[in-house]
Structures
1.
Amino acid sequence: MAKRTLQQKLAILADAAKYDASCASSGGTRRDSRDGKGLGSSGGSGICHAYAPDGRCISLLKILMTNFCIYDCVYCVNRASSRVERARFTVEEVVHLTIEFYRRNYIEGLFLSSGIIRSPDDTMADMVRIARTLREQENFRGYIHLKTIPDAAPELIEEAGKWADRLSINVELPTETALKALAPEKSLQSIRRAMADVRARREVARETSHTGKRPGRFAPAGQSTQMIVGADPAPDGLILANAAQLYASYRLGRVYYSAFSPIPDASAALPLIRPPLLREHRLYQADWLMRFYGFDAAEIAPPSGMLDLEVDPKLAWALAHRESFPVDVNRADRELLLRVPGFGTRTVQRVIAARQHRTVRYDDLIRFGCALKLAQPFISLPGWSPRALPDDANLRARFAPQAEQLRLL
Amino acid sequence: MRRIVLPRIGTVAAWRAEARRLASAGVPAEAVLWQVGDGARDLFEEGGGEDAGAGTAVRLSRTALASIETALCHRDPERFARAYALVLGLSRGELVWGDRADPAMNRVLAQEKAVRRDIHKMHAFVRFREIGDRDALRRTFAAWFEPEHLITEAAAPFFARRFGDMDWIIATPDLTARFTNRAVAFSVTDGATRPPPDASEELWRTYFAHIFNPARLMVSAMTSEMPRKYWKNLPEAELIPEMIRSAPARARTMQEAAATMPDTRAARLAARRVGPAGTSEGDMTLPGLKARLDACRRCPIGACATQAAAGEGPENARLMIVGEQPGDEEDLAGRPFLGPAGRVFDDCARAAGLDRSEAYITNAVKHFKFAPRGKKRLHQRPSPAEVEQCRWWLDLERALVRPRAILALGSTAALALTGDGRDLSHRRGQIERDRNGTPMILSWHPAFLLRAPEKSTRDAVREELIAHMRLAMNLAGAT
């Protein structure tokens, strides 16, 4: 095999990495390089430096260290039985790409993942070496996200957490059964144990001992995970319940949902589908409701249920619970205001701040950032009363997509 | 009418000083004409002071000042006059900061938002090209960028924080920022200067083309965040039209391609592959217990937990201690009695002279049952059916350890061991026998100590628990 150029390797190993949805580069410790002795800054909200025509932001250099892999996960482009081209970066090549891209303001940092070569420990050790070189040799102060490999030795995880801002382990599939069927070498138990380990280490790293000394840093920007949606028959309710459990159990920063997408050289065991992008979008909306709006997973979708693709999950909940509406904007408590379609967390915050010294009127809502069209049927306040709207049997049709209505005509 | 001409560099700071001065001199907003100079001449003022009234001391909140100063980077020529009027109104208490009912306030806030977004996009879309010696101690980079508003000064500190170990120049149609030896300087731009592409740019374009997934084409999601107006200075943007055009065909090809046969390398790997470690089926020993428990799905609890907390202690322990179920910390570590209740347990054991490492410590239910609540897990009591399912494991532990006595903590343990978890208030401290006839003592679960609101109750419970521990130790030693 002819030796590949850096550009050829980059093409192969970016192709291999694109199915991971994670892109966050926010949070963590604040760092900068004003002292002139290093490169980079991080810790604020992340920046998306470019967008690809798939609508996904490009914030980090997202690559695989290698796409050689001894595992054979059916959904994965890099599985052992796939005939895709294979390549492997050296430590120096990844460091070079990261630094040169960063200096040109293309990226916020590095998101490094890898196929499993030889053994989990060997693979993890190489990834840790890249992170260490960036930090120690290049004085790189940008963002580093490492995909950790379940079953890697604890010392390696400890060191990975020392250099990286974020660690992540993908749960891959929503159920244990699906994982057994589609990713036979992976085990849900070792994935969860790895997450538990990261959470425990993070908690230790944040505790101050009685001498006032803090132990070393460990993944200050937390951990995240990804679930593939649509490769197995798990319904949305189950996916959300699973996500709620992961948030509670391992204090995850994010759960990413990735619509199962066609890959080159697919497996005969898993026929390709059009990626369920709308479903993925609804899952993210539902995830938001769980994290910031006080919704329980089961309220959004029953365990065996699917999310409504036509209207967003918050509106769907409101349409199904008309007895709770209209909400008196000047009296309702925060929890109820958060359930009004068209009211975001900022709107609710502004409403609560304003009504402490005066009555909130309908005209105020636009300035509070409320989406009036959505909210109208569900609120009452001076200047607006929805009259019979919440009882209107056709209320749903007002919000269903235009295309649907056109077809009806 | 006064005409105030502000400098092109340091415009906002100059406006602030002038606004303060004019306000204290009592100059009304409509009597000032604000302009920005051509760069050659610095700040100056023309016109008389005949219009001065009573002076106003400028009093602004920090957030108000920061917002107004950001909004002043907008290209709107009316911005200085509007901001000065706003400052007068706010200082005199005629306006409340943030009240969008006031049209001028609303306008300033909207402009602030537009400027903020523009600054954010400048931080994102400036593309440096190397113009100096690659091996120099401080390498030198340059960029040409066209922001929508006059934000070069406001956006520069970000680049100074981020690129501290290199020199850089960012030229815009208005101002140029130069960062040399860790100091930023601004000058009025003298003609457009686009630095030539460098070698790494081709690598970046390769990355951009290959991180794109043609099966998920969503052009509007891209353009809403990366509007076309920025494309002309983005080296990767010229690839976009072709990427969009060829995407549907590429996605179709992937879907239509028939699955191929794995190559010989894959076959070799498949032969070497082993399943996930630790399926020790049929291992009936105590050391093999943990792996089997982890995999237990006799009831639904196991599927939600991280792992089981198997019992721990010597195989020939005389005393067995049975609690309810693992909690949050026990679930993370896979060991019993570690969390807050575990610490209470250890404290009481120490007081009772009980050496934890000599007893066999376990739970009636081996997996953590919980309900997720945000980033917390709320403990849920296992149902009698779940306790019954898990008894299989407890029975196995009892058969392997064969303790002389058992200390049961809480009603779930009582239920598992005797089949009856009721009426603990009368049963506590009595010597009973479990299903197999082993003598056992029932006591409080240490978690009760954490929940009891009154200190007197807690003290009494603690004393009882310690006494029962001593009793159980005697029972285990004497029988």
2.
Amino acid sequence: MNANGNQRTSTWLTTLAAAMFAFGFALVPLYDVFCDLTGLNRDAAQSLVNNTQVDASRRVRIELVANVQDGALWRFAAPRQPVDVHPGELVQIEYELENLTGQPLVGRAVPSYAPLAAAAHFKKIDCFCFREQRLAPHEKVRLPVLFVLDRGVARDMKVVTLSYTFFALGKRT
Amino acid sequence: MEANLAQPLPQAHHAAPGGVWRWLASTNHKDIGTLYFWFAATMFLIGGLMAMLIRAELFQPGLQLVQPEAFNQLTTLHGLIMIFGVIMPAFTAFANWQVPLMIGAPDMAFPRMNNWSFWLLPVAGVFLVGSTLLPGGAVAGGWTMYPPLFLQGGISYDLTIFAIHIMGASSIMGSINIATTILNMRAPGMTLMKMPLFVWTWLITAFLLIAVMPVLAGAVTMLLADRNFGTHFFDAAGGGDPVLFQHVFWFFGHPEVYILILPAFGIISSVIPTFSRKPLFGYASMVYATASIAILSFLVWGHHMFTVGMPAAAQLYFMYATLLIAVPTGVKVFNWVATMWRGSLTFETAMLFAVAFVCLFTIGGFSGLVLAMVPVDIQLQDTYYVVAHFHYVLVTGALFSIYAGLYYWLPKWTGHMVNETWGRWHFWLSAISVNVLFFPMHFLGLAGMPRRIPDYALQFADFNRVASIGGFVFGASQILLLIVILKCIRGGEKAEARAWEGAEGLEWTVPSPAPYHTFAQPPEVK
């Protein structure tokens, strides 16, 4: 039995195990690097970048409104400018929310649309209104909305208003 | 080597200590092998009962016994338990018992770490099985733990990740121990190419484990971080990619498949020459074939995920690379057949299981070839054909090799010959019922029955009923194995040092049962 030899071998094998653990994490970027180098998964057929559903022949102006139920607690602000979108286009906008108090606050936004008929064509992929918002004292956050106004929206609907009203939820923290 | 022999061994030569401490604090490779074996047997009972429940639910269409949520938990836990709790510990049991005996070493290289490797396992086992009692039940997302499902479950998902971490640590420590023992502690004269093939397969398996268990640990750590620490490795909403998990998981998963079968090849390569009374045909080619399979196993993971939206070039590459594995595997199968060719064959139970292994594992290999072909796989992905395939390689493959190894080496471990009558009953009942159980699953899969469902369309009813009957008989037959083992421990015909007429190797030079300490003086190998 060669105790030194055993020590050496086990050190070597332990290093190998540790390196493979790191390699597992390295795989996260490495798969992308591999695809970039080889061009695999990088051709047009594989990519989802081309949105074929955009109706470039017209634009709809989206007016963005923010209301807050209790202005002493929160500052809730919409983007300053309305956005002009093509129907079918994927759009991301950001609202802002700030906790004005020294207390943690929980609240939730509820959307509404004008004209009401636009609601059926307003497809939100992700929205802060899907979740409760928890803010630490004086915390300020940006709240994204990712949406598509689909091609079915009527041609005479030139302006749509998206409005969020923010409500505080109880005393829960 | 010579220098250390004069000194007393770290553990003085005494008989086995008594009581519970013999087992809790054991550093003896034979005791730890026995512990591994009984742990695997216990988990086999639990995982087997889950399989019985699954087959009972699938006995007829409709929901009878378990609700879909519970059914999903059963399939998930059955998979995790059978892989990590049964097959792997059972092979480690063989490694612990046999590797030092076969290479003429007094014990494993790191006896205390060996104790650790084992005693981590029951903890992980309790976590896995105990998670059924937590709110929301046990994990139900399939043993492959794919996100996004795995990111959405309750506390038991975190506990399962922890259990995987523990089992991974146990496997890595065990493998470092086994590899070090094999590399450094062989008896003088035993060159690498004189090692029994079982030792070779375990050396290669140990390297596979050291290479891929950390990758699995990394993958489940990323799951854990996604679940609890706000990372987005696999969460598409945060810019992650659920398919990434499949890539990382199967980078572990495919070598894992060979971790579950290479030691089986080693056992079969010990059993068949003994009962053919001929040396193993093509020893060197067996070694090279094993090594080739191990290397190829790192290059084919994509065949588990042909349907994720992979570019055609990648599908083609993974298909050809996978088909290539049939070559070294074929070398092995033909070598076993050639070993038996014109041998003086006798069919003791160990040999029966070994021959059944060669036939039935080959069926599993062939259905694997079918699944390797992309156009076919796209049709058969996640059907019962896949279930049939991997149960042929894991039950009639890995498990039957474990049975063959048990019947072969029990005389060495207990000092008593196995009761052949009971053994034959166990073999024939198992071999017939296992085919009744799994063969119809090929037809179910070809007809389109998806896996992991508690209920199915009416046209699948007949074959499911046949499979369930086979399943119940197979499950009940395993009670015979327990009886065989217990009878063998308690008594029976006294085994000689060389328990089998044609047996070769160092383990047959020590008395049966093998003394608590063996090869304090290393034997000379010519």
